[in-house]
Amino acid sequence: MAVVKATKPHIDMLARLLRAEAEAEGEQGMLLVGNVGINRIRANCSDFKNLRTIPQMIEQPHAFEALQHGMYYQPARDRERRLAQRAVNGERSWPAKFSLWYFRPGTYDAPGPCPSTWYGQPFVGRWKKHCFYEPTAEECDNVYNTFG
Protein backbone atom coordinates (compact mmCIF):
# COMPACT_ATOMS: atom_id res chain seq x y z
CA MET A 1 0.00 0.00 0.00
CA ALA A 2 1.40 3.38 -0.99
CA VAL A 3 2.50 5.85 1.69
CA VAL A 4 2.21 8.74 -0.82
CA LYS A 5 -0.17 9.02 -3.73
CA ALA A 6 1.55 8.12 -6.95
CA THR A 7 0.24 7.74 -10.45
CA LYS A 8 2.07 5.72 -13.09
CA PRO A 9 3.67 8.92 -14.47
CA HIS A 10 4.82 9.79 -10.93
CA ILE A 11 6.39 6.34 -10.52
CA ASP A 12 8.17 6.87 -13.85
CA MET A 13 9.44 10.27 -12.66
CA LEU A 14 10.77 8.76 -9.43
CA ALA A 15 12.29 5.84 -11.34
CA ARG A 16 14.17 8.26 -13.62
CA LEU A 17 15.44 10.12 -10.55
CA LEU A 18 16.68 6.88 -8.95
CA ARG A 19 18.54 5.97 -12.12
CA ALA A 20 20.03 9.43 -12.58
CA GLU A 21 21.13 9.88 -8.98
CA ALA A 22 22.32 6.41 -8.02
CA GLU A 23 22.47 3.88 -10.85
CA ALA A 24 26.14 3.22 -10.06
CA GLU A 25 25.18 2.44 -6.43
CA GLY A 26 23.13 -0.60 -7.45
CA GLU A 27 19.57 -1.44 -6.53
CA GLN A 28 20.08 -0.75 -2.82
CA GLY A 29 21.59 2.65 -3.55
CA MET A 30 18.71 3.57 -5.82
CA LEU A 31 16.18 2.42 -3.21
CA LEU A 32 17.94 4.62 -0.61
CA VAL A 33 17.57 7.64 -2.90
CA GLY A 34 13.89 6.76 -3.19
CA ASN A 35 13.67 6.62 0.61
CA VAL A 36 15.02 10.14 0.89
CA GLY A 37 12.57 11.44 -1.71
CA ILE A 38 9.56 9.85 -0.04
CA ASN A 39 10.79 11.08 3.37
CA ARG A 40 10.86 14.62 2.00
CA ILE A 41 7.23 14.37 0.91
CA ARG A 42 5.99 12.87 4.17
CA ALA A 43 8.10 14.79 6.70
CA ASN A 44 6.75 18.30 6.06
CA CYS A 45 9.67 20.01 7.76
CA SER A 46 12.99 21.74 7.11
CA ASP A 47 13.34 22.70 3.43
CA PHE A 48 10.56 20.29 2.52
CA LYS A 49 7.45 21.93 3.95
CA ASN A 50 4.28 21.64 1.90
CA LEU A 51 5.58 19.02 -0.51
CA ARG A 52 2.73 16.65 -1.28
CA THR A 53 3.62 14.92 -4.53
CA ILE A 54 6.52 13.24 -6.27
CA PRO A 55 6.66 15.95 -8.97
CA GLN A 56 6.82 18.69 -6.29
CA MET A 57 9.66 16.86 -4.53
CA ILE A 58 11.65 16.23 -7.72
CA GLU A 59 11.16 19.71 -9.14
CA GLN A 60 12.38 21.62 -6.08
CA PRO A 61 15.12 24.00 -7.24
CA HIS A 62 18.64 22.65 -6.63
CA ALA A 63 17.32 19.53 -4.86
CA PHE A 64 19.00 16.95 -7.09
CA GLU A 65 22.32 17.25 -8.87
CA ALA A 66 21.25 14.89 -11.65
CA LEU A 67 18.56 17.34 -12.72
CA GLN A 68 21.10 20.15 -12.87
CA HIS A 69 23.35 18.06 -15.13
CA GLY A 70 20.65 16.70 -17.45
CA MET A 71 21.00 13.07 -16.36
CA TYR A 72 17.37 12.90 -15.22
CA TYR A 73 16.10 12.58 -18.76
CA GLN A 74 17.27 9.00 -19.25
CA PRO A 75 14.26 6.71 -19.65
CA ALA A 76 13.03 4.67 -16.70
CA ARG A 77 13.46 0.93 -16.94
CA ASP A 78 11.41 -1.79 -15.26
CA ARG A 79 14.09 -2.26 -12.58
CA GLU A 80 13.92 1.38 -11.51
CA ARG A 81 10.10 1.36 -11.68
CA ARG A 82 10.01 -1.59 -9.28
CA LEU A 83 12.40 0.19 -6.91
CA ALA A 84 10.37 3.41 -7.12
CA GLN A 85 7.20 1.49 -6.29
CA ARG A 86 8.91 -0.15 -3.29
CA ALA A 87 9.88 3.29 -1.98
CA VAL A 88 6.36 4.64 -2.56
CA ASN A 89 4.99 1.58 -0.73
CA GLY A 90 7.02 2.58 2.34
CA GLU A 91 9.98 0.20 2.23
CA ARG A 92 12.77 1.84 4.26
CA SER A 93 16.42 0.90 4.75
CA TRP A 94 19.28 2.28 6.82
CA PRO A 95 20.98 4.72 6.37
CA ALA A 96 18.14 6.47 4.53
CA LYS A 97 15.29 5.31 6.77
CA PHE A 98 14.77 8.80 8.25
CA SER A 99 17.18 10.78 6.06
CA LEU A 100 16.20 13.96 4.25
CA TRP A 101 19.58 14.51 2.56
CA TYR A 102 22.28 12.54 0.83
CA PHE A 103 25.52 13.74 -0.69
CA ARG A 104 28.32 12.24 -2.77
CA PRO A 105 31.59 13.90 -1.73
CA GLY A 106 34.70 13.96 -3.85
CA THR A 107 34.78 13.15 -7.53
CA TYR A 108 32.99 10.42 -9.42
CA ASP A 109 36.11 8.25 -9.43
CA ALA A 110 37.43 9.15 -5.98
CA PRO A 111 34.82 9.52 -3.25
CA GLY A 112 35.78 11.74 -0.38
CA PRO A 113 35.02 11.50 3.32
CA CYS A 114 31.49 12.24 4.52
CA PRO A 115 31.13 15.61 6.25
CA SER A 116 29.82 15.33 9.81
CA THR A 117 26.80 17.45 8.87
CA TRP A 118 24.98 18.42 5.68
CA TYR A 119 22.54 21.32 5.67
CA GLY A 120 22.80 21.21 9.46
CA GLN A 121 21.76 17.58 9.74
CA PRO A 122 24.06 14.95 11.26
CA PHE A 123 25.69 12.19 9.25
CA VAL A 124 24.08 8.80 9.94
CA GLY A 125 25.76 6.45 7.49
CA ARG A 126 27.20 5.78 4.08
CA TRP A 127 26.19 3.52 1.22
CA LYS A 128 29.03 3.16 -1.28
CA LYS A 129 29.75 6.76 -2.43
CA HIS A 130 26.70 8.44 -0.88
CA CYS A 131 26.58 9.91 2.62
CA PHE A 132 23.16 10.14 4.35
CA TYR A 133 21.93 12.74 6.82
CA GLU A 134 18.85 12.75 9.00
CA PRO A 135 17.37 15.57 11.03
CA THR A 136 17.27 15.65 14.79
CA ALA A 137 13.91 15.04 16.44
CA GLU A 138 13.91 18.67 17.58
CA GLU A 139 14.28 19.88 13.99
CA CYS A 140 11.87 17.45 12.38
CA ASP A 141 10.11 15.05 14.72
CA ASN A 142 7.49 14.33 12.07
CA VAL A 143 9.98 12.27 10.05
CA TYR A 144 10.22 9.90 13.05
CA ASN A 145 6.51 9.94 13.92
CA THR A 146 5.41 9.22 10.36
CA PHE A 147 7.48 6.11 9.67
CA GLY A 148 7.83 2.79 11.37
Provide an overview of this structure.
- With 148 residues, the chain is of the alpha+beta class.
- The chain is 42% helix and 11% strand.
- It is built from seven helices and four strands.
- The chain has helices at 8-22, 26-43, 54-58, 65-68, 78-88, 137-140, 142-146, and strands spanning 101-103, 117-118, 121-127, 130-133.
- It has a four-stranded antiparallel beta sheet.
- Helix 1 packs across helix 5 and helix 2 packs parallel to helix 5.
- The longest helix is centred in the first third of the chain and has 18 residues, at 26-43.
- The chain is globular.
List keywords for this structure.
4 strands; alpha+beta; 148 residues; 7 helices; 4-stranded antiparallel sheet
SSE class:
alpha+beta
Task: Please report the total strand number as a whole number.
Answer: 4
- How far do the termini sit from each other? 14 Å
Q: In sequence order, what are the helices and strands, one letter per element?
A: HHHHHEEEEHH
User: What overall geometry do the principal axes of the alpha carbons give?
Assistant: globular
Radius of gyration: 14 Å
Average the pLDDT over all residues and give the rounded result: 90
Helical fraction equals 40-55%
**Sequence of strands across the biggest β-sheet:** 1-4-3-2
Quaternary arrangement of the chains shown? single chain
Main sheet makeup = 4 strands, antiparallel
Please report the number of helical segments.
7
Strand content: 5-15%
pLDDT < 50 runs, ≥5 residues? none
Describe this structure in a few short sentences:
The chain has about 150 residues and is α+β, with helices and mostly antiparallel strands.
